[in-house]
Amino acid sequence: MAADYALDFAWYGDDFTGAAATMEALTFGGLPSVLFLETPTAAQLARFPGLRGVGVASTSRTENPGWMRENLPDAFRALAALRPRVLHYKVCSTLDSAPHIGNIGTALEIGLGLFNNPWVPIVIAAPQMRRYQAFGHLFAGVGAAVHRLDRHPVMSRHPVTPMDEADVAAHLSRQTDVAIGCLTLEDYAAGADAALAALLRQGVRAVTLDEMDAGSEAEAGRLIWQASDHEPLFAIGSQGVEYAVIRHLVARGLHQLPPTPASRGRAATPMMVVSGSVSPITAAQIGWARGNGFTTFALDAAALCRGEDVIGPLQAQALAALRSGQDVLVHTAEGPGDPAVAALAQALAATGRDGAAFNQQIGETLGRLLADLTRAAGLQRVVISGGDTSGHATRQMGIFALEALVPTIPGASLSRAHASGDFDGLEIALKGGQMGSEDYFGWIRDGGGARG
């Protein structure tokens, strides 16, 4: 007999943009969902009848295992109390993590301790996003090319969690003693249920799932949905978890995809963007924006670190540009080679400040700047670039929930903000540093919407 579920999914995102991407995958897949910035109250939930998914965004990707052990159990219990069929710990599709920071193994151990599941599915791949897993190894598309994760031009050189291992189980085994196995494409062809049973007999407690195309994605979704028939299932992965289940349900004729929402149009100009990302992908987007009508300003993070007043003059210049009808973009750096990155490193060394704490200060500073300028200029649409920046900045704006409005690239839709103050109803897009087409900021300025 199937369990009594109130939701299909509840998820806890290890960063803000990733949590928003899961909401998008569900909502545009026909399962209405809302993302909250904190565990929602009953009154907040009551504002959204008919939900099939509820998520909470966090900063756990930037936290240490001690923080995770202190905070994740209560967060998981609160989401479990909403009676979801699948409780999903959402991680990045490029597996950003390490033993000392963003430790996914710690989350796995906590989930196994709280949920009576024989096994935990781990789905990092998401073919819609050009994230693939074959025989346990993760691949990710960049531009026209697809790279194995340890040869990825961005992730192999990530400043905090550089990826030197493409085998998902091997990477996560550095973070936990839990036995992790893999169901491969060959296992699917021969019979995944028998292969899974064999792994469990060997003492495996978590299993990574290969995905390369629609068929293997649907098979991964079947395994997840089947495992949650009689009891809530704890799962780990990217929004590939949701994509896989929806693919399975559609393939079985149990669910129908809705029409894709249309663009919101250009009526919300002028628009403002703040970026705390140092990704080369974001750098290209900043360059495109500068050449296509945006007025760009650099926030001098090194001077901010030294305690200098850089915000007052910057705010005055940006407000003048917005009031004259110009779209504005404020950034901290244009890629890892920007001299601003080295200057900040020198300033941190000279002042003895903690880099992680100062990165949070940058995100909060950008959030306050965006809030002040949105209010002063009466903006209706804004963008925040950078996963960690998005989490810190939105909290400065009093936003407590987001609803996806229209898609762009997978994982960076245009959303509606729900807030207790001035920003209720604001249209906002949140973009991870490694995501998006070169013209992404212009795409949002034009109202978003899927492209053919």
Outline the structure in words:
The chain is of the alpha/beta class and 452 residues long. It folds into two domains: 7-251, Putative sugar-binding, N-terminal domain (Rossmann fold, 3-Layer(aba) Sandwich); 272-445, Molybdenum Cofactor Biosythetic Enzyme, Chain A (3-Layer(aba) Sandwich), CATH 3.40.980. The chain contains 16 helices and 18 strands. The chain has a 15-stranded mixed β-sheet, with helices on both faces.
Fill in the CATH topology of the largest domain: Rossmann fold
Average pLDDT reading: 94
**Count of discrete alpha- or pi-helical segments spanning 4 or more residues:** 16
Helix content: 25-40%
Annotation, overall tally of beta strands? 18
Q: Assign the CATH superfamily of the largest domain.
A: Putative sugar-binding, N-terminal domain
Q: Unreliable stretches, pLDDT < 50, 5 or more residues? A: none
Coarse shape = globular
**Total domain units:** 2
CATH architecture of the largest domain: 3-Layer(aba) Sandwich
- Summarize the main sheet: 15 strands, mixed
Distance between the termini: 43 Å
Q: Could you tell me the radius of gyration in angstroms?
A: 21 Å
Question: For the record, what CATH class of the largest domain applies?
Answer: Alpha Beta
Instruction: Assess the beta-strand content as a share of residues.
Output: 15-25%
